[in-house]
Design a protein that fits this description.
By secondary structure, this protein is α/β, with parallel strands linked by helices. Among the domains are: about 55 residues, no CATH class; about 80 residues; about 80 residues, no CATH class. It contains four helices and 24 strands. The chain has a 17-stranded mixed beta sheet, with no helix packed on it. Strands 1-2-3 form a three-stranded antiparallel beta sheet, with no helix packed on it. Strands 21-22 form a two-stranded antiparallel ribbon. A hairpin with a 2-residue loop joins strand 4 and strand 5. About 40% of the residues are buried.
């Protein structure tokens, strides 16, 4: 220890020499000692041997400021400050804690392995362990929550006891208090949630989710209106963006199921698929604009670009192929009809299957209307034709193979208004139901058989 007041008193030569010598020793050893010199000066160095820290007096000469350790390399004192910013291990110097920020990790800390960087980060933490927060007010009220990660201003700003949450982006998971195992990446992602096990990646993804759980949202605005719906997966900008309470939905593609509110168990894959659906459930749409105007219809399945794009409220339809179920397809435009099947559009030239369709025909499923009135006379008036299909109605170009068959208009003229063999519901797209002609042919054969029998008996 070598300290001196640096005042040279008058005296004999030997006494003055000792006084000067002690003053130089004090200067040379930076006034080293276990406590500050009794007499000190502005900007005076002090080697504090009790803390092993080199200090310097401020310009007012009334407080010593930490500089570095006496051991060598630059280092700050335990829980030191620079311009009111805490640096060190935080309150109580708990092992493996790291602090850099004003009022960061400054509560009665017992939890360890925490990292707090930024103003007021982890400032309420006491027993929580292994939390990492970077950004002003990140995890600021966590008290006992553990293994949480917050990157960004106010990220995990309201969390108290929840565990294993990851928030990256300003305000991400900002209002979560007790939920656990949520992951939010993007500004305001999962900002309002109280639920658990949600994943949101993208600006405003799952922004106002409250109690919904087990949701996955990837894309700006994905599931951003969801509040209580659970088990939803949305990938793409604004995908399932209007969903509030619908559950078990899967949407992949920009605007897929965009304004769905309460519809559940839907699958939408492709740009703007099912994007007008609100409450319809159990729909499957795969292909851009597929089932694009359906609002309340349920149990529809459509696959192919723009397949079922005109279905508005119909349900339990099966529509497969590009533009199937639209005006240019065999079914004509399906809008409110239900229980329809349409395969392909009018450009299809052949349909192949290894075996014939097996059609149910159980008597127990049928209500009898009477006998079939048509027979030989009806058959004699049929006009079989050979033909090709036109490429379209405005063209004389042939498409596909040469075929044998009938013109629907000819048969409809024979049947009249109560047609069975011809489906005339859509007058612009008359359809022939060949299986319905078989009973008429059977009647014709029976009439011929009776005549033949009579001739033979002749």
């Amino acid at each position: 220890m070598s300290q001196k007041d640096f005042t040279i008193d008058n005296g004999t030569g030997a006494a003055v020499r000792v006084d000067i010598q002690e003053s130089f020793q004090a200067l040379a050893t930076n006034s080293s000692g276990g406590s500050a010199p009794a007499t000190n000066y502005a900007s005076q160095f002090f080697a504090n041997t009790s803390t092993s820290i080199m200090q310097i007096n401020n310009t007012s000469g009334n407080a010593f400021i930490n500089l570095f350790t006496l051991a060598g390399g630059p280092a700050f004192a335990v829980d030191g400050t620079i311009n009111s910013i805490n640096i060190g291990k935080g309150t109580n110097s708990v092992a493996h804690n790291t602090v850099l920020g004003q009022t960061a990790l400054d509560a009665a800390v017992t939890g360890n392995n925490n990292t707090a960087i930024g103003h007021a980060t982890l400032s309420a933490n006491t027993s929580g362990e292994a939390n990492t927060c970077c950004g002003s007010f990140g995890g600021t009220v966590i008290s006992s929550g553990a293994r949480n990660t917050a990157m960004g201003t106010f990220a995990l700003g309201a969390l108290t006891t929840g565990d294993e949450n990851t928030a990256c982006g300003a305000n991400s998971l900002g209002l979560l208090e007790t939920g656990s195992r949520n992951t939010a990446v993007g500004e305001s992602a999962l900002n309002a949630t109280t639920g658990s096990d949600n994943t949101a990646v993208g600006h405003d993804a799952l922004k106002i989710n409250t109690s919904g759980t087990d949701n996955v949202a990837v894309g700006s605005g994905a599931l951003d209106g969801n509040q209580t719906g659970s088990n939803n997966t949305a990938v793409g900008q604004d995908s399932l963006g209007g969903n509030t309470e619908g559950a078990n939905n899967v949407s992949v593609g920009k605007d897929a199921l965009k304004i769905n509110t309460a519809g559940s168990s839907g699958v939408a894959i492709g740009y703007r698929t099912l994007d007008a659906n609100t409450t319809g459930s159990n729909n499957v749409a795969i292909g851009g604009d597929c089932l694009g105007v359906s609002e309340t219809g349920s149990d529809n399945t459509a696959m192919g670009s723009a397949a079922g794009a005109s279905v508005f409220s119909g349900g339990n339809n099966l529509i497969l192929g590009h533009d199937a179920g639209r005006s240019g397809s065999p079914s004509g435009e399906i809008t409110t009809a239900s229980n329809q099947i349409c395969l392909g559009d009018n450009s299809i030239t052949n349909a192949f299957i290894k075996v014939a369709f097996t059609v149910t025909s159980d008597e127990r499923d049928k209500i009898e209307d009477g006998v079939v009135s048509h027979g030989l006379d009806f058959v004699n008036q049929l006009k079989p034709k050979s033909f090709w299909f036109r490429k379209n109605r405005d063209s004389d170009e042939k498409t596909g193979d040469k075929r044998y068959g009938f013109y629907a208009q000819d048969i409809l003229a024979l049947e009249g208004s109560n047609s069975v063999i011809i489906d005339s519901k859509d007058a612009d797209n008359l359809k022939f139901k060949g299986d319905q002609l078989i009973p008429v042919l059977v009647n014709a054969i029976k009439e011929l058989s009776t005549k033949v029998t009579a001739l033979e008996a002749g």
